[in-house]
Amino acid sequence: MNFASSLSNVKGVGEKTAEQFILAGIHTVNDLVTFLPRKHEDFSDVVKIADISPGKKTIRARCEKIATRPVRRGLRITTATLADDTGKLQAVWFNQPYRATQLKGNDEFFFSGEFEFNYNKYQLSNPSAEKVSDVPVSTDRIVPTYRAIKGLKSQVVRKILTELKPLITMYPETLPANVVGTQKLISYADALMGMHFPKGPDDIQAARDRLGFEELFQLLLASQLNKQANAQLEGWHIPFDQQVVASFVKQLPFDLTAAQRRAAWEIIQDFEREVPMNRLLQGDVGSGKTVVAGLAARQAAHAGFQTAIMAPTEILASQHAETLTKLLEPFGLTVGLLTGSVKGKARVTLYEMIANGTVDVVVGTHALIQQTVHFNKLGFVAIDEQHRFGVKQRQELLKKSEKMPHLLAMTATPIPRSLALTVYGELDVSILNELPKGRKPIETKIWSPNSSAQLYEKIDTEIKAGRQAYVICSLIDDNPDNEIKSVETEYKKLRNSVFKHRTIGLLHGKMKPDEKDAVMQSFASGKVDILVSTTVVEVGVDVPNATAMLIENADRFGLSQLHQLRGRVGRSSHQSYCYLVMSDSSKPSQRLREIEKSNDGFYLAEVDLQLRGPGEIYGRAQHGALNLQIATLADTKLIKRAQDAAKLFVQSGDDLLQYKQLAEQVNTYQRLTTLN
């Protein structure tokens, strides 16, 4: 038996159990021993029902009575009476109807949950339930709980791991010995034992410290090696011409913010170096990233280089093209727009102009990376909302130049500093944290769904004053099992009753691109008073006259998404408002309270990271591959330790290939986090 052995060779793994493991993606002994628990339940401190007090508690009891009932669409409540030999108490579960089946019979269970005052009585809220006969006594009652993938139960995982205990103690070390020593870490084998078979809380903490450090060390080492590799590349030299930049700034109908000036200067300095720029431009919503990219494109064009700007949607690409045309045409530069909508002769002509260099700046969607697109001399690439593109898509665009072009990755999703240090460690970062002059902070308020009449009056007042409004819903069609307002239903309701005296538009992702564009154009030109939409308006839609944003079921959205949606208003000198309407009249979450009190995207990004982990920051194609089971990217102290250790390892010249497991993971992360 070794770590590469199939699980079917392990004692106790029959055909059915082996199938369950395979469905969960666990094939070998190594897969299982490195499948870490998501939490630990401490069953060593079990209280009698007669002695229970408020707080996180564990009891050992039987279920005497249990029932499930629907409260409203989308919510079912299960209540139970639990009893031991000292008394009885009530337990409640939300949307967990399977508990009724699980707790039938006369079995004893360990119930762990919050004993709190809810609905006018004390009860155990959403407790976990572990059958007493399934909890191995040898664990001293601190029991690991594993993610239930494809129905794989924790007790099955625990049972098989118990068979593998002797093998786990022999797991080879995965980190260089000097890193383990200087960081005072326990061995990898001891860390696995501490996670799967802890004798007490100290074992778990030491194991988490070791494994969390290793995850971050792998990620940061990949980042360091990427930075080293980038420094070996030869890029285009684009000299700084003060007159060119000064004339561009003078021509602007507004003053650049100090942050825009700083970012532009950092880019210009990068252009002068022989090594290609690898810079991330973070700008909060409405902070003016396109102008900074325009200034850089002007400098590049003066030196004889073309610029490519890639955006994730046609609407966003069109807006960038429109803005850049206004900024660059006065200097005799040509801006081209290449999207899926450009067809036939117009497309062929644009291809020719890009190839012969008569187009200075090409703005486009994924259409830019097609093999039919050939640049004359591509020197500068800007990728907007870069986390929405996969690594391969970015690389395809960069390949369209003889030398590595300068790369500016732009994002309106502010990335917490701790995260930027980690995943984008090989990038230089510029931050736009100021809004243009004259912008007023958006007033944000949480509303109960019972007060919608007053809310509609406020929106109507804005429209009377000549302004426009957004109403955001999260679904397209009505779902009978879900009370979330659908955009179709809301559109019909507002058009036929509350706002029948107003012009209302409908926008969602299932519409054809030309239909979407037509609706957006009508809204942008002021022909539509209220736009009822899904989150397709989240990024880049710029309608300065829109001053009211109503978000239905706001408690169902993520923090960064709410901040992005709110950023569609507040884009002029008029006062703007954002109304966050709850799904019900329950207490607002911390997420909603945070967004109500702050307009600062960078502060909210830090809060979001602590509340829900890295999530969408990596983009759809990437965040799933970031294999962090233990480390949290909000742990800045551990990040600093891992970062220093990674730098020392690179400087030491130690051969990474000596450490097989480390090398494999670092190689994966290098492909994942690099921008070029």
Task: Give a structural overview.
It is a single chain. Among the domains are: 44-134, Beta Barrel (OB fold (Dihydrolipoamide Acetyltransferase, E2P)), CATH 2.40.50.140; 242-272 and 288-411, P-loop containing nucleotide triphosphate hydrolases (Rossmann fold); 443-598, Rossmann fold (3-Layer(aba) Sandwich), CATH 3.40.50. Strand 12, helix 14 (391-398) and strand 13 (406-411) form a beta-alpha-beta unit. Helix content is 38%, strand content 20%. Strands 10-11-9-12-13-8-14 form a 7-stranded parallel sheet, with helices on both faces. It has a 6-stranded parallel sheet with strand order 15-20-19-16-18-17, sandwiched between helices. By secondary structure, it is an alpha/beta fold. It contains 23 helices and 20 strands.
| Helix/strand structural class | alpha/beta
What is the CA-CA span between the terminal residues?
Answer: 42 Å
State the fourth-level CATH superfamily of one domain: P-loop containing nucleotide triphosphate hydrolases
Based on the coordinates given, report the CATH architecture of one domain.
3-Layer(aba) Sandwich
Biggest sheet, spatial arrangement of strands: 10-11-9-12-13-8-14
The number of distinct β-strands equals 20
